[in-house]
Amino acid sequence: MSEAVAERLLARKDEILERLKALLRLPSVSTDPAYAEGMRATREFLMARLREGGVADVRLLDGGGQPAITGAWTGAPGKPTFIIYGHYDVQPPDPLELWKSPPFEPTIRDGRIYARGASDVKGSTLIAVETVIEFIKAGGCPVNIRFFLEGEEEIGSPSLPAIIERHPDALAGDAMISADGGRASTTVPTINVGSRGLTALRFSLRTASKDMHSGRYGGAVRNANHEMARLIASLHDEAGRIAVPGFMDDLAPIGDREAADAAALPVDEAAFYGAIGAKPYGTPERSVRERITLLPTIEVNGMWGGYTGAGTKTVLPCEAHAKLTMRLGPGMDPARAQRVVREHLLARAPEGVSLTFEAGGPGTPAFTLGEGHPLLAAAESVIRRTTNRAPVRARAGGTIPITAIFKERLGIDTLTFGFAMPDEDVHAPNEFFRLSSLEEGLRAWPLLLTELGRLDPAALRRA
Amino acid sequence: MSEAVAERLLARKDEILERLKALLRLPSVSTDPAYAEGMRATREFLMARLREGGVADVRLLDGGGQPAITGAWTGAPGKPTFIIYGHYDVQPPDPLELWKSPPFEPTIRDGRIYARGASDVKGSTLIAVETVIEFIKAGGCPVNIRFFLEGEEEIGSPSLPAIIERHPDALAGDAMISADGGRASTTVPTINVGSRGLTALRFSLRTASKDMHSGRYGGAVRNANHEMARLIASLHDEAGRIAVPGFMDDLAPIGDREAADAAALPVDEAAFYGAIGAKPYGTPERSVRERITLLPTIEVNGMWGGYTGAGTKTVLPCEAHAKLTMRLGPGMDPARAQRVVREHLLARAPEGVSLTFEAGGPGTPAFTLGEGHPLLAAAESVIRRTTNRAPVRARAGGTIPITAIFKERLGIDTLTFGFAMPDEDVHAPNEFFRLSSLEEGLRAWPLLLTELGRLDPAALRRA
After folding, report:
1. Separation in Å, CA of A212 to nearest CA in chain B
2. Least CB-CB distance to A291: which of B220, B292, B309?
3. Of residues B34, B38, B25, the one with CA closest to residue B102
4. How many angstroms away from the CA of B334 is the closest CA of chain A?
5. pLDDT by residue (tens digit) across B76-114?
6. For a Cys staple, B229 with which of A232, B195, B349, B363, CB 3.0–4.6 Å?
7. Domain ranges of chain B
8. Peptidase M20 dimerisation domain: from which residue to which, for each copy (chains A, B) (predicted)?
9. DSSP secondary structure letter of residue B122
């Protein structure tokens, strides 16, 4: 049946593209209250489509912030239940002046649809929604489905724990399939088998109780900017290796399988660095693919201190600030990573330099879909059939917090099965989604749901 | 005659205090166009007082910005001509909420007059003005006088070169006496014999052509913040000594006289560091006084890069920025200091890190009133008589750009003879001026003008 469903989906590809355009016209920027109406309209649009398509129990799940959308189809008794994850919020469109066509006026150029949220992740979310609707139209789905379309993914899912807490029924399932989390290559078929974790730490540094005049005090007082620079410089060695003692101690060693998977998807360094105008860098003992997917990082995302306005101000600043995030490799504990970095900074701060820390939440560990996991086998089978190639197992360098949150809170694993590609300028001007990806997704999702229908629910939960 | 003039000035001390209050009520904030009316009213006030007091040729000197006020008394043929420098503009009063009494409502508490500009420098400027007027009233001044009351001191004197260029007659003199540039101690009488120079350099650093996603690129690309931190950290050693090779090469060695002068005015470290809540720091081989007056500095007044807003953003920033100013010791060339720092930074920047520089103007060299200078001898004699103590020769750690500008453009030396004290919260809330300083100034200025009347104009210009 899955092939017939795929055929029907492809037959109404133009209609689905029009639906995607309509969805992209709704400006659902979760971080900015000015877009509240766009958020509301987007929810209405998706809920109306789910209801119209025969999905039951369509409603909002409130967790105190932007609500998530749920809806269920449970007509496959004995079959496993899958939560289908997507998100309806998007990044802010700024800087507007760099867009070639307006961010909320979807525009097709050269086989791509340009709009904010096209790649991240309204395109892939709609593929999943339309696939389920098509199955329902054809008599039923091979598996039970609960949609979970989040409205706060782009702001770090602050209400997600509360939503999970308050609405356990809506999230009861055997595994999750995520429309978010795209493909790792524009040329090689890949299956995502993991992602790095993430934890955040902010700190401020103080050398005196007030800003000083650089003429009156300069030469005899510690400048907060200089001290901050020393501390930040101490985090890495010259080659870019992390220099914080003990930071890597709980990193799982890179095994043969991980090394082989990484080697199977080598980074084209000329293209990789050329696209961003940068030079090769980082832990020399590891390949670029390993550096960006398996090794942890400590990145100072922001730092500032003293006068940053126009012209010159001869201030000797007493405080400086930094925001760090760390990407975590498999095995690393987010709380431990934070603690080790805090201890390193405290140990390096000389007398007269006081530090204050602010932890950026509990953090997310790395996620791995283990060798032999039934979700992995199902996805590989589908990709082999739709592409006629064996997919490469790829880890994501980024973090998919829901994978860890759902594993931790609900005990379920996640298969990411999105169709975004890595060059589609997500979070940047001129975000786009390939029309060919829309087609590939509409071909693959029916096959995937059919494969998943063959799995034993108990085996999924044991995996 | 000078003692009689001083007596008469002191006799009308209350009237002069009322005049000072009236002057302080006029909000002459040069940096903010909203205060244009306050600037105009302040000019009118001072010009009216000069005219009323018998000063001739009172007028404005236009240089394209806030005009300066001039006026002359030239009734002492054969005697030297002194330019009396002061400024009528003040710093902005912000933050207003920290003032105990409103900044433009002068209020007397505990023998101090609190108001914006009281210490910097309307108090000392008015002492000079009233002294000259009192001499004129008594039949004439011991020297020829040209007032030069600037309106842009607090914004870096942008029009000063143009004013000097356009109005050479108004600035023809043998030396300058500045009411700006106060005393170095609240307990020991001092004479200022020099100040550090100043030069500014801004630079930006780039590691890629665009900001990147820390998940997709983290671990394989240089983070601009990390690179900026390394460069800033390379400017000093751990003890706070400047680590830029060659930077100190043109610094005049600290001689016996300089060391003795510095030792004669030791910094009370407990009070100095206690007042700012900081710990002792800086070149260990030199005393705190030497560190803050004779040694050069490189201070990063501002640095910033990446995301500095609320919350967390997992950006891997491609650019970072820094604003530096350097205080220069005697002998140092501002252009050379800039060049040496630029070369150091360029030499330390690894492949893949590009730097761009923006020089902050030509800079100002340090200023020194040499041993045996007739202005110095005159000032020392006056202070000895008014305090019954031998004044200590003190250098200022800050920069008095007019001293260097007048030396360079007009070939004349400057004696700073202001009565502000170093603890009077200039440029800060609750600025004040001591009423005792008003009295000391009114006693000392008549003596000074009389001493200066004994000098040979030619000797002044040769000094």
Report:
1. 8
2. B220
3. B25
4. 16
5. 999 999 999 999 999 989 888 899 999 999 999 999 999
6. A232
7. 2-195+366-462, 197-251+296-359
8. 201-352
9. I
**From CA B412, how far away is CA B414, in angstroms rounded?**
7
Of A200, A297, A304, the CB nearest to B312: A200
- Are the beta carbons of A316 and B302 separated by less than 8 Å? no
Chain A positions touching B273 (Cβ under 8 A) are 221
ipTM for the complex?
0.88
Architecture of the domain defined by A200-251+296-359: 2-Layer Sandwich (3.30)
Which chain B residues are Cβ-neighbours of A205 within 8 angstroms? none
Asked whether the beta carbons of residue A215 and residue B316 sit closer than 8 angstroms, the reply is no
pLDDT at A235: 98
Three-class HEC string of chain A: CHHHHHHHHHHCHHHHHHHHHHHHCCCCECCCHHHHHHHHHHHHHHHHHHHHCCCEEEEEECCCCCCEEEEEECCCCCCCEEEEEEECCECCCCCHHHCCCCCCCCEEECCEEECCCHHHHHHHHHHHHHHHHHHHHCCCCCCEEEEEEECCHHHCCCCHHHHHHHCCHHHCCCEEEECCCCCCCCCCCEEEEEECEEEEEEEEEECCCCCEEHHHHCCCCCCHHHHHHHHHHCCECCCCCECCCCCCCCCCCCCHHHHHHHHHCCCCHHHHHHHHCCCCCCCCCCCHHHHHHCCCEEEEEEEEEECCCCCCCCEECCEEEEEEEEEECCCCCHHHHHHHHHHHHHHHCCCCCEEEEEECCCCECCEECCCCCHHHHHHHHHHHHHHCCCCEEEEECCCCHHHHHHHHHHCCCEEECCCCCCCCCCCCCCCEEEHHHHHHHHHHHHHHHHHHCCCCHHHHHHC
Least reliable range by pLDDT among A107-116, A155-164, A387-396, B18-27 = A155-164
Q: Which has the closest alpha carbon to A187: A380, A389, A432, A396?
A: A389
The answer to whether B316 contacts A307, with C-beta atoms less than 8 Å apart, is: no
From B213, B278, B399, residue closest to A221, measured CB to CB: B278
CATH class in words for B197-251+296-359: alpha beta
Distance CA A461, CA A80 (A): 10
CA count, 13 A, side-chain hemisphere, B272: 20
Give the pLDDT mean for A261-278.
95
Chains A & B: contacts with CB separation below 8 Å: 281
Residue B371 has pLDDT above 80, yes or no: yes
Distance from CA of A381 to the nearest CA of B (A): 27
When pLDDT is averaged across residues B335-363 and rounded to a whole number, the result is 94
Determine the CATH number of domain A2-195+366-462.
Answer: 3.40.630.10
Chain B: closest CA distance from residue A78 (Å): 39
* Six token digits for residue A161: 């724990």
Q: How far is CA B54 from the centre of its chain?
A: 30
List, in sequence order, every residue forming a beta bridge with B68; answer none if it has no partner: B61
Q: Given an 8 Å threshold on Cβ–Cβ distance, is A277 in contact with B208?
A: yes
